[in-house]
Amino acid sequence: MDIRTIARVANVSIATVSRTINHVPTVNPKIAKRVWEVIEELNYFPNTQARALVSGRSKIFGLIISEITNPFFPELIQGFEDVAIESGYEILVSSTNYDPKRMAQCIRRMLERKVEGVAVMTFGIEEPLLDQLAQRNIPLVFIDVGPPSPGVSLLKVDYQHGIRQGVQHLAALGHRKISFITGPLRLHSAQSRLAAFTKSLKECGITPHPEWIVEGDHTLEGGVAAAEKLLAFDESPTAIMCSNDMTAIGVLHHMYRANLRVPDDMSVMGFDNIHIAEVTTPPLTTIQMSRFELARAAVTALRAQVESASSLAPQREYKIATELVVRESTGFPKGTLPQVPKRPRKSKA
């Protein structure tokens, strides 16, 4: 079966079937509806490779991520695929696991499949590898930072807003001994989150304690190790803010093993608001960075590059908002109670 069969049954031309399958907007909606009904009735599947050869377009967007094991990335992949499919694109996903050799393999796969654009949702990409994409005029999207080159868009995450809200939340509860477990400090995002944390502390009149700033690795195991280190100090913090939710979940686990209660003995806060943050014990207070917003902005940026018919340069930056989500893992510091205003005594008549 091919489009000739579809054209004969739908009583339209082969060109009309082709334009319908390729979502050309000039096709009459009633005719397009009839063509799609025939396609569904005959259970026809267009040959995408053949279409790509004829049209010169693969209609594929690449997505390069850091790892699969962190729930943040599968949620990002799901959002990216949903938005891409709605826009008429397929996706090709590759995971680097923070390995430069795997990054090179990821890029090779993208080039072999002739992707029309690539969203690079990872860090540490080396310049020679980037050049392989840039030399072919492939539109690129990066989180936070990227080269000032044509065809490159950036998703700029507003770390400061959400982290400021988180620090202010802890300070309002009475915390002054606040720790921060960073991500790998070779990453720009980890440096940005740490800078936002330090600035927010100072805005609240709290002096950062250098010993309570511990470098992590964005993993559950890293959260366990960092929490163990923090609790070994003679003076421990009363609240721990983490650079991502997986680190925070590791902290929760170590608190459980140490027979400490959250938030009674220690308040814990994450960053990302992955889905399982709602069902940890206790549910995790965290800072939301929407994976769907990241995905939608990435696809929008790639489409703007690929489909732009004007001479105007597509948008360079797309802002990604952050917002505090308060749950049950944060509370008043141990040994303190909220100050309840006393009611004035009634004067005797």
UniProtKB/TrEMBL annotation:
Keyword Aminoacyl-tRNA synthetase: no
SMART domains to which the protein is assigned, alphabetical: HTH_LACI (SM00354)
GO molecular function terms attached to this record: DNA-binding transcription factor activity; transcription cis-regulatory region binding
Keywords on record: DNA-binding, Transcription, Transcription regulation
Keyword field contains Cell inner membrane: no
Residues of the HTH lacI-type domain: 1-55
InterPro entries (UniProt xref): HTH_LacI, LacI/GalR-like_sensor, Lambda_DNA-bd_dom_sf, Peripla_BP_I
Gene3D superfamilies associated with the record: 3.40.50.2300, lambda repressor-like DNA-binding domains
Name of this protein: Transcriptional regulator, lacI family
Organism: Acidobacterium capsulatum (strain ATCC 51196 / DSM 11244 / BCRC 80197 / JCM 7670 / NBRC 15755 / NCIMB 13165 / 161)
